[in-house]
Amino acid sequence: MLKIGQKAPDFKLPSSGGKILNLRDFAGKKIVLYFYPKDNTSGCTKEACSFESNLKVIKKKGAVVIGVSADSVDSHMKFAQKYELNFPLLSDEKKEIIKSYGVWKEKSMYGRKYFGIERTTVVIDEKGIVRQIFNKVKVDGHTDEVLAIL
Q1: What domains are defined for the chain?
Q2: C-alpha distance across the termini of the chain, in Å
Q3: Distance CA 123, CA 138 (A)
Q4: What angle do CA 29, 35, 36 make, to 5 degrees?
Q5: Residue of 13, 23, 44, 117 with catalytic role
Q6: Model confidence over 22-53: pLDDT tens digits?
Q7: Which DSSP state fits 110?
Q8: What is the pLDDT of residue 54?
């Protein structure tokens, strides 16, 4: 289980921008790494658009935003273009990073149990240390919570 104060697990994943990105690419910057269930769904779209509309403020605070889901790069590219998202969306189709960050959880809907991504945001400092973990994120007001701790 991921804990505040520990080194953030490294990642090396393809992005919506067509590049392979890893944690080291963002050394010296704070990272708002958010995990979300699925492109083009209502909650995930609202969350992504909220981060996008606050991107200038986030950047002024020395941070970058990175989204992660198990969707394909193609799905991410279409999602990013449709909503004009100017931050990378990482594709973790094998769920390796999703699992290493502890966000692959058993969920329940209408009495049916299944595994999926629990909406989670991890704030990582300039040295790669986990500084904040927001579990079971509620989309409304979440960007404000993140901005308050940057």
Answers
A1: 13-149 (3.40.30.10)
A2: 23
A3: 16
A4: 140
A5: 44
A6: 999 999 999 999 999 999 999 999 999 999 99
A7: T
A8: 97
